[in-house]
Write a structure and sequence with these properties.
The protein is α/β, with parallel strands linked by helices. It has twelve helices and 14 strands. The protein is globular.
Length: 335
């Protein structure tokens, strides 16, 4: 009887959590969301951006911020790639895009009292948007390192109660992962702050993370050409050539990136993070005591009262099906 009661209590608690995460609409009918991206890193960022922009009936995108990770060049390179995708999706003229951190959290945090600290544009924008009156918390969706988000929380701790952070990163409980490794200190900082924090797991090489949500060159080449709205002006792509629809740029991105098999498969990690905000039933969520990274390895803290959510076991068919549908039947976001 005690075991049955305990199971029911756990089930009730998870139901409350899932209901909270599944709350898709505020009174305005849309999620307020801010995307933080290392856009020039590979190709999943660009597809996440397009998917976000083409779900205008679900998302109110307040703007984008960029940061630098070890691939993709300096902050200007990431800014320009984000701008390309925004222009191809006809949102650049109506949506803010700000440059964020080049350096790491620990290198910048002592300079936050200076007006032009590294990443100031993005950090100040995050804080400003968090404080705007709204029906639900601002969703911060970082799909690169966590530097900009951690700096915003450090500069203005009061925003912790006004945001929900959904981060694409980590192989938890396994070591390593690109976004995590680019600024471990920023992750540990957020793990120790009382702020809603959800981790959309990567788990490279495993079927339980967003690494399993992938496409390949044949699928992209057959599905994406001509998809998306006609851009107001042509855009020169990262690898050259001129494009006027995002779908054609998607083909170029897949044809010009290193892949790990003959099919040209590449995961769309970041896009999957957008997808589970749109529909939380496309993955499984679990609440855990917030762990900590110690010398690159996860250290469990089972008695930690501070809890975080992890997302795993993604429904690839549902997510990719919706992605391709929205590339054709898009609803463009509006200011």
């Amino acid at each position: 009887m005690k075991n049955l009661l305990a199971a029911l209590l756990i089930l009730m608690g998870m139901t409350v959590l899932l209901t909270s995460c599944q709350k898709k609409q505020s009174d305005s009918g849309k999620h307020r969301i801010l995307l933080d991206t290392d856009a020039n890193n590979e190709l999943d960022d660009q597809h996440a951006m397009a998917y976000l922009f083409f779900n205008g009936d679900v998302f109110d995108v307040v703007g984008l911020t960029v940061n630098t990770t070890k691939n993709g060049g300096n902050i200007e390179g990431h800014y320009q790639e984000a701008k390309r995708v925004m222009e191809l999706c006809n949102v650049y003229e109506s949506m803010p895009l700000f440059k964020g951190a080049d350096a790491s959290f620990e290198d910048i945090r002592t300079n936050l009292d200076k007006p032009n600290f590294d990443g100031a544009e993005a950090v100040n924008f995050i804080i400003e948007e968090a404080h705007k009156k709204a029906d639900e918390k601002l969703i911060l969706l970082p799909v690169g390192k966590l530097t900009n988000i951690a700096l915003a929380l450090e500069k203005d701790p009061s925003i912790a109660s006004k945001v929900r952070i959904v981060w694409l990163g980590s192989n938890y409980p396994y070591a390593g992962e690109y976004n995590q490794n680019n600024d471990e200190a920023s992750l540990n900082y957020i793990l120790n702050v009382d702020v809603p924090f959800e981790i959309v797991l990567v788990r490279g090489g495993k079927l339980t993370g967003t690494a399993a949500v992938s496409s390949n060159r044949a699928e992209i080449n057959s599905t994406m050409p001509g998809k998306g709205p006609l851009a107001n002006k042509s855009v020169i792509g990262r690898h050259g050539n001129s494009f006027d629809r995002f779908g054609d740029y998607s083909v170029s991105l897949y044809n010009n990136i290193h892949t790990y098999d003959e099919a040209g498969t590449r995961p769309l990690f970041d896009m999957a993070a957008v997808a589970i905000v749109k529909d939380p039933t496309w993955a499984e969520m679990k609440e855990i005591p917030a762990p900590l990274l110690v010398n690159g390895e996860w250290e469990e803290r089972p008695d930690n009262p501070r809890k975080v959510i992890i997302w795993e076991n993604f429904n690839k068919e549902a997510i990719m099906g919706d992605f391709f549908d929205r590339m054709e039947n898009y609803v463009l976001v509006t200011p």
